Amino acid sequence: MNKFFKKIAILLCVMFIAPAVLNCLPSVQTVTKAEAAAKAKAELTNKNVGICSTPEYLYIVNAKSGAKYTYTSNNTKVATVSKDGKISGVSKGTAIITVYETYKGKKTKLSTQSVSVVNSKLARNSMEVIAHTGYLAPIQYMNFKAKYTYTSSDPSIVTTDKNGFIVGLKGGSATLTVTETYKNVKRALGDIAVSVTESSISDESKNITIGINSINSVYDVIYITNSSWDVVYSYESADRNIVSVDSRDDGWGYTETVLKGVNLGTTTVTVYETYAGVKRAVGTVEVTVKEIPITSMKLEDYYLEADGSLSLTYYLGNKGDFSLSEYLVKEPFNATTPVIFTSSDESIVKVDQDGYVEPVKVGNAVITASCGSFSAKFNITVSSY
């Protein structure tokens, strides 16, 4: 009987324990996959690197905490690798970069990466440039210790400046032949076909209208396509009795050129550009000066309070930095109907006809801006500090 009960006991144990063991197996498998996914590995930014050019890097993904990673090159005459995994090209050829992981005193090979060190080459064989603007030559894997020379088929159209930038001098096309000299060895990289576009007056700006007595920044009314920061632009009026060309402070510490409508009529304004001492006419703009009546005026919604009013506070001893005109929206924007500012109590606050406020004493007043049949009111509070 004892043997019989022992057999029964063993059978029952197998029946109850076996399912539990089997249920545990998927969990063991899942942990194994998670561990494999988290295993450190080395990734290379680019398998090609230029000679004395921008380096490439080996990055360790899923690096182990507490582990140390080291790098070696099997051919330092071709490529070197720093302790941080920066790979630098030395000469043309192929090198094998090996990555080691040292963890808890055990050093293992993590991976090997094949790196090709290549010569510089042209990234493309044609380019379009805007006149008088410098462009980097399209050289891939540029060798920073080499010297590059550019021979132009027409230096009056395309040249290079002292910093090696490609510069178009006038409209047209020319070819640049690029040569690299490194360690006294010359190597031809090839030709670049360069097309140069000059600046010009945009179609929308060839005929413009400004208001009588209005002052207009040239940047607001005359648009130049393909303009360059390296060029100085100037403007000349054919009849200063109709349109004058003047300068003013733009409010940000810079001087800007403005056109003023002096008398009714039509004249032309010629735009010039000057680069490296050479002056060229960009184009001519026909400018008509006329009366432009206002059709609407209101306060800018952005500044309004919930009840639709606009309240401003000024402090004794400080004049307003901004004109009240900044708070007005006029239609059309270049209307010539004058805006007249008046104060309800000049013993408290004064305002000039340009809309600048001068606080006089503590108190409250209303400044009204009137333009034709339209008006807007500013609730002014003058306070002391």
From TrEMBL:
Coiled coil: none
Residues of the BIG2 domain: 38-113, 116-190, 195-285, 306-379
Leader sequence segment: 1-23
InterPro entries hit by this protein: Big_2, HL_N-beta, Invasin/intimin_cell_adhesion
Protein name per Swiss-Prot or TrEMBL: BIG2 domain-containing protein
The keyword Magnesium is annotated on this UniProt entry: no
SMART domains cross-referenced by the UniProt entry: BID_2
Keyword annotations of the record: Signal
Family matches, as Gene3D superfamilies: 2.60.40.1080
Pfam families associated with the record: Big_2, HL_N-beta
